[in-house]
Amino acid sequence: MLYLNHIFLKVRESSIFMVNILKFLVIGKGIDYGGPIDPANFLMVSEKILLPSIEMIMDWEEKQKVVGGLFAAQRAGVIIVEAQSAEELSSLLQSLPFWAQNSWKVIPLQTFRSGIEDVKKQIANVKKMSELSPKPKYESAPI
Fold first, then answer.
1. CA-closest candidate to residue 83, choices 26, 17, 12
2. Percentage of the chain lying above the pLDDT 70 cut
3. At residue 58, does pLDDT exceed 90?
4. Distance between CA 54 and CA 65 in Å, rounded?
5. What is the reported pLDDT for 37?
6. CATH fold of 6-128, please?
7. Assign residue 119 a region: left if phi > 0, alpha if psi is -120 to 50, beta otherwise?
């Protein structure tokens, strides 16, 4: 399921281990080759490369491997992908027929849970630092 952060796999009757699932924000944008494309090439690219790629992504979405969509009136789109590694993500993207005709920006995502943990650690560190620092001799004026 797309919104899980880990999966439990049963190896033997007595042992279970956890596999972390990473989330990646993936932005794909068609490369501009600088000029109009003739109708014959447009049809070939659209039928053999573009349409099959979008259909593959739609299939991934139906199987709850990704969520996302196309940017309206643009040759670009975005998906959030779950994968066990950057290598798995790379392999998935490279399986798309239009992989080489797009530029890709991939941003690893942090879970909200780990973000909360980070903020709590920052708060604790600042509190500890403020306890160790010398107290001012006078109070500052309120802002």
1. 26
2. 81
3. yes
4. 14
5. 87
6. Alpha-Beta Plaits (3.30.70)
7. alpha
